[in-house]
Write a structure and sequence with these properties.
- Two copies of one chain form a homodimer.
- The longest helix of chain A has 17 residues.
- In chain A, strands 2-1-3-4-5-11 form a six-stranded parallel β-sheet, with helices on both faces.
- The first copy, chain A, contains 14 helices and twelve strands.
- Chain A has three domains: about 50 residues, lambda repressor-like DNA-binding domains (434 Repressor (Amino-terminal Domain)), CATH 1.10.260; about 130 residues, 3-Layer(aba) Sandwich (Rossmann fold); about 150 residues, 3-Layer(aba) Sandwich (Rossmann fold).
- By secondary structure, chain A is α/β, with parallel strands linked by helices.
- Chains A and B meet through α1, α5, α6, β2 and α7 of A and α1, α5, α6, β2 and α7 of B.
- The structure holds a DNA duplex.
Chain lengths: ~350, ~350
DNA sequence: AGTATTCATGTAAACGCTTCCAAAAATTTG
DNA sequence: CAAATTTTTGGAAGCGTTTACATGAATACT
């Protein structure tokens, strides 16, 4: 093993610098009790010998790994990509490494990974879009293992989490559609087991209420955030006697699929029907017409998740709760003032 | 440190199972020299005690980390996401963990990461779209450090790499456009420092030659794979006296931007102008019109990269060269037979 | 049955570092 | 200037494994 032989250790550095390996270790760890002059000599030697501390050994001896684990469902949409960018930035600055685990939607893998990771492979865990966190939040909390949830508000658990103002975002977006003149708005929900999905639905309902628009059960299609739901839901709406003039999907992926359905029916966006999404994933701005949507600050959510995790690492007993970041409506081409249908308005009103 | 105290080690397992810790280690490592009955007893004990082997210790003692490093430029487009999916699948099956490093286009970070990682943090390295690999391929080769390059053909280096048949893909795609009747085809190149970009350009040129179509320098716009190039390049083409009837961009991102430019000029896709991309990133099928493109088997490239790396790990002296995976044309909506312009054909011919 | 071979198991010595404690050197104090 | 105090340094004892090597048990062979 060449790799083995020519590796330079703190002992080599110590010998070369004429100090004990203990001192070298102190230098590595920025211990104050080293004479500046000695420190400089050691540092110089390390540089000259091209020394890199062995992470495994440090972890083993020190009990820290300087690595955090990231559990994500997938990397397909760019949605996660944005979040990772944020996490990665913070981690890099803090000198942590990132261990990536993809569950590929297999919820069962989650718990398995978690129980392994918690066993000391990483110092902390960031879980993005956890599927059924209740399975393991218990053991993590009990073991006081540092973790943060991203984009999930629990079904009751009270733990560190980063999310965004889903309710407010949906409320504002709906309000905006109403301002454009839309009174019949079809809403496609997300997976209602997730708090985020429920909040978006509630925001939608509240906005209708505020605007004194009756809530028609037929105009709510229950989806799961999956592409197909957007398509199916939109078709359901379009086949109604009086189809909605706008469709608000609980995420961009479903909104994009809804656009397909609308086009297949020979309708134009936004002239005939407006489409609103949620998330603002990168491709939302790339499609034509580009998608008006509610922006979640994904990258920032990632950054803050990392920061919160660091804080937990430092102050394990500090109480950390859910943090909500503001959402924002991004106006693009897929929504427009209700025009063509205005003559039909009386009709619509009669209907209600 | 609670974390510390309640950790169960092989010694605990050994005591509980009534064997020496050496035997437990053998069981963990699937050593043949363990009586089946003993093995079962140890396994049972491990299960009961919820034992998880400490990775740091294993690495330190064994000299292997069971972790591979992945260096990627970014996670934005889904392009990398696909590749990672492939890598991740293989890694998971083989029991390796994934350490992710993002360079965010900062080429300087690459070399830094590499020199650290090579120092024993990971057993091998997969570099996706390396920016300037010559900086560190040298040291890796010299140290015999296992690595694989993905989607990059060197500017001379002879090392393990996974790519696709860029030349053939571009050749076939161009041929296809010609079959549709297009004779004036605008080509937007990638970053010509990358072999892949050069190959695509050469494939394009060769197809023109085969079809006896003159190669007009004005119909080649030199880009860098970046979005803006697609836009600018397309505008350049469209402002010509005799604009091309088809545009072939060296990647999907530029093709998508070219579509924007075409639309801004009030032209329709594909009726007025056909657009062809390269890569087949996930969003290519999601845009409207959907993008006809040359598919690189990204996920498969990831898988094979991992497999090759495993092979290098097993047979360090085995010679590993570049592997090329076949590309494939994906027909979608952005290309069509040359129709409307057919009456102008004589004109075009006169021009050449 | 007695010896030669396997096979199964136990044990000590790393692996490269952190951390604690004690010793040595430098500094302050009376 | 010696004693007390503080700062700096050295070295031992782990951290939880793997991996030789040694030993003991079981099996095969003559």
């Amino acid at each position: 093993m060449n790799k083995r032989r020519d590796r330079v250790t703190i002992v080599d550095v110590a010998a070369e610098a004429g100090v004990s390996f203990g001192t070298v270790s102190r230098v590595i760890n920025n211990d104050v009790h080293v004479k500046p002059q000695t420190r400089e000599r050691v540092l110089e030697t390390m540089r000259r010998l091209n020394f890199v501390a062995n992470r495994q050994a440090r972890s083993l001896a020190g009990g820290r790994t300087n690595t955090i684990g990231l559990l994500v469902p997938d990397l397909g949409t760019g949605y996660i990509g944005e979040i990772i960018r944020g996490i990665d930035t913070e981690l890099g600055d803090a000198g942590y490494d990132l261990m990536l685990y993809t569950t590929h939607r297999a919820a069962t893998k989650e718990a398995g990974y978690v129980s392994n990771l918690v066993q000391g492979m990483v110092d902390g865990l960031i879980l993005v879009l956890p599927r059924n966190p209740s399975d393991y939040i218990g053991i993590m909390t009990q073991r006081k293992f540092p973790f943060v949830l991203v984009d999930h508000q629990g079904t009751g658990e009270d733990c560190p989490a980063i999310g965004s103002t889903n309710w407010q975002g949906a409320f504002n977006a709906t309000n905006y559609l109403v301002k454009l003149g839309h009174k019949r708005i079809g809403f496609i929900t997300g997976w209602l087991d997730l708090g985020a999905a429920v909040d978006r639905l509630e925001g939608f309902k509240a906005a209708l209420r505020t605007n004194k628009i009756p809530l028609l059960p037929d105009l709510i299609y229950e989806g799961t955030f999956a592409q197909l739901d957007g398509y199916t839901g939109a078709l359901r709406f379009l086949d109604m006697k009086k189809p909605p003039t706008a469709i608000f999907a609980s995420n961009d992926v479903m909104a994009m699929a809804a656009m397909d359905a609308v086009r297949e029916k020979g309708l134009r966006i936004p002239e005939d029907i407006s489409i609103m999404g949620f998330d603002d994933i990168p491709q939302a701005s790339l499609m034509r017409p580009s998608l008006t949507t509610v922006r979640q600050p994904l990258e920032q959510m990632g950054r803050i998740a990392a920061q919160v995790l660091f804080d937990i690492l430092k102050n394990p007993d500090h109480k950390h709760n859910r943090i909500e970041l503001p959402t924002e409506i991004i106006l693009r081409e897929s929504t427009a003032t209700l025009r063509k249908l205005q003559e039909e308005e009386p009709d619509l009103i009669r209907f209600h």
